[in-house]
Amino acid sequence: MLDTVLLAVGPGDEDRSERLAEAVLTVAQPADATVVLAHVFTSSEYDEVLERLEFDRTLEEIDPDVVAARHSTIRELQTIFDEHDIDYEIRGVVGDHGQSIVDLAASTDADRVVVGGRRRSPTGKAVFGSTAQQVLLSAPCPVTFVRSDDSTSGH
Q1: What is the value of pTM for the model shown?
Q2: d(C-alpha 35, C-alpha 25), whole Å
Q3: 96 is a domain residue
Q4: pLDDT tens digits for 9-31?
């Protein structure tokens, strides 16, 4: 049974958010599953986002869930899920991308993880990026990898 789908996005996923949403809708909608919509930031990415979104950094602590909710990729995915009446919760995580996704999949009891990645050069096509590879090998549930359809790039 599919109750929880973890969709983990990061800074490279802006251009593939629609494809990621489609992959999630395909599995979550028929099962009436809840989506954990997570944005994973490294420490430096988190600092950049806090600066760009003009968070008050004098506050004691800024909740990563709040930061994630204000990020454009998450807002775009929220709009899509709202249009399709999908239940979701937003999570923000700061840490190593791959390990953070694996840990979040375990802590949310995810039944499926959906992650994105980029198209590789001909010699790199057989090898996923390190984040995707870590999630595929270590997640406690099945993983769906959504490759970007980046045919305009010279890679």
Answers
A1: 0.88
A2: 9
A3: yes
A4: 988 888 889 999 999 999 999 99
